[in-house]
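Agenda item 2: pyridoxal-5'-phosphate complex prediction
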Amino acid sequence: MSSIFAKRMETLGTETAFEVLAKARALEKQGKDIVHLEIGEPDFDTPKNIKEAAVKAINAGYTHYGPSAGLPDFRETIAQYVSKTRGIKAEADEVVVTPGAKPIMFFSILALVNPGDEVLYPNPGFPIYESMINFVDAKPVPIPLPEENDFRLEPEFIKRHVTKKTKLIILNYPENPTGGIVTKEDLKVIADCIADRDDVFVLADEIYSRIIYEGKHESIASLPGMKDKTILLDGFSKTYAMTGWRLGYGVMRKDIAQKVAQLMTNSNSCTCSFTQMAGIEALKGPQTEPEKMVAEFKKRREVIVSGLNDIKGITCKKPHGAFYVFPNIKGTGMDCRKLGDHLLYNAGVAALAGTCFGKYGEDHLRLSFANSVENIQKALDRIAKGLQKR
Ligand code: PLP
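Presented output:
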């Protein structure tokens, strides 16, 4: 029987974290106790000043449609924030506000990439990149992230793989799932190899730019000549514990911003108005809460990394940013997908198989440490015991 679905749906991938979360919730419904280390969201509450700003905005009537690209004051606030944090001159009309940052991937790829174009992207990496590249019938060119180099991409690899068909290079730093970062020197090599190309763009996913444990975040947009070649993606989900608010943005050349805004008109119409007002408070208000969250993540990082390294068969690198670890589980002798299922069904720990992040994620698990130290310790205990009971 022929499928009822459009052909293009065959190439669309998914984000497995949501599927594992659903399985874990089903087990909880049956009375099982599960430690959730699968989903990438801060366990903290959204800071009070931001919540109050949203309530105030609702009462002030920010409950109607707004412009597709975002409220002018919010776009201006974002432009100022990005200018300050990246050392560039971003303008309000280069900003597009979206419900979460994820649509920036979707829309910029839809707007720029033709069938047959080549797109480089990190692997293991956020699964939506590969999903979208396939969806638009482009050619995925995975950039491996060598574990022995702390999952830092090799810029020389990019240099070797940029061809005349290359349209987009996706970078994500700090990286999900590895916590890897890049240096300014790496970024310079990447910028140099596309310096004479006005048809190649970089999608810089900087959603974890504020969750960094040592050193300073470097943005490719701040390198000479790169601002107009970069679509900078950022948002509020991770930094301000606002995953459910759905608030993110992209900063890009004005002509690209207009196309992305047109895609917003065709899909969401606009981003929720009162959450945008809360976004202004997030960026302009006190930054003590997000700073406290990062300090807490840093403590948890120590607990999870040393705990995993104490388990036979597992080795774990220390992530430099974001809130994930990507331990190597080869020594357990188990396939990472089987191990993920075993831990979920028999040990009460929800984790993701490394292959949820692409083929180079083989032999790894991804665990989020956006959970309490107590729960992390419980999970470590369960993983150690679960590996003995096979
Ligand atoms: N980029 C990366 C690398 C992520 O890990 C995520 C969320 O998990 C996002 C973007 C999307 O964030 P949101 O759509 O919640 O703003």
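Discussion summary: The radius of gyration is 21 Å.
Owner for follow-up: CH.
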